[in-house]
Design a protein that fits this description.
The chain has 125 residues and is an all-alpha fold. The protein folds into 2 domains: 1-54; 55-92 and 105-125, no CATH class. Helix content is 59%, strand content 0%. The protein is built from 4 helices and no strands. It is elongated.
Length: 125
């Protein structure tokens, strides 16, 4: 290997190390947020499982959404069950499907989307 190859390899490994360090920080932050949420829920006498089981009437949902909007949390608004996207299934419209790179199966993408949707369920309000 030449000196140039060695330098490029070291730069590449340095980028990988930075990516891993940043990912570790993000995972740690998520863990801290989950722990803080659990403490807040516990102070209210609730568990995450209970909150995930909440079902709101339309009037309650509107009241919650107004309060969230008042607090500047528009991205956290509650959707009715009829409007909520089903994250466990890929979009059925062909124009909404991304083009697959060569050697990449569509089933891989849909499976990853399904898994990601299931992973994010605990973080939905």
């Amino acid at each position: 290997m030449t000196e140039k190859d060695d330098r490029e390899t070291e730069e590449y490994l340095a980028r990988i190390r930075r990516t891993i360090a940043e990912s570790s920080r993000l995972v740690e932050q998520a863990g801290l947020r989950i722990a803080e949420t659990d403490r807040l829920l516990e102070s209210q006498g609730l568990t995450r499982e209970q909150v995930m089981g909440f079902q709101f009437t339309d009037a309650q949902r509107e009241a919650v959404n107004r309060e969230l909007e008042r607090r500047g949390l528009n991205d956290w608004k509650l959707e009715s069950l009829d409007e909520a996207p089903d994250l466990s299934r890929p979009a059925s419209s062909p124009d909404l499907q991304p083009s697959d790179p060569p050697g990449f199966e569509s089933s891989d993408l849909s499976e990853r989307q399904r898994k990601f949707g299931m992973m994010m369920k605990p973080f939905q309000i």
